[in-house]
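Build the 3D complex.
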Amino acid sequence: ETGVTQSPTHLIKTRGQQVTLRCSSQSGHNTVSWYQQALGQGPQFIFQYYREEENGRGNFPPRFSGLQFPNYSSELNVNALELDDSALYLCASSFDPVGGYPFGSGTRLTVV
Amino acid sequence: GQQVMQIPQYQHVQEGEDFTTYCNSSTTLSNIQWYKQRPGGHPVFLIQLVKSGEVKKQKRLTFQFGEAKKNSSLHITATQTTDVGTYFCARNNAGNMLTFGGGTRLMVKP
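Done.
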């Protein structure tokens, strides 16, 4: 097991709604990154949090936002959902941003 | 941009045949990571290559990092049905903020 847990596993939302996805990391994993993986494509970097502050951001609009909490859990929030937001959302965490990444099993979001 | 290109996009092989996927970048890579994603699963970290010309082996898998640190390859010897999945390379831009290639989907006929 990777020690990275995501919830929920599947979610269906309507266009225009807001969604919150959650990621729980192993104790001590102070770095968490979120990725979006559309069907048939490689994961795309959304943003990274390090010690509760945003540490880097990919090419995603501001309606994608996140939080990291002192207990090493993390949230990804997406406002004003669009059909193209349908994807597998992955979080990955580690102790300090080095080395290989254990990914969670992801949340599959469908926007209808 | 700092993209990585992977070829081929798909590969069908007969069980027992070898398989290779290639990853190319127009700019020098500080390091490269490889992941495997089974159908319906999530990416699983395989290895990270850091040094120019580095070669690492994991059982039937051989990973290479080019001398110029602009390309990398993953070679699987004598494929098995358990090797089925999509193999991704990912450049590590800084602090594990990864840029993934498009992946090579491997299908193995028993």
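The CA atoms of residues 23 and 109 of chain B lie 24 Å apart.
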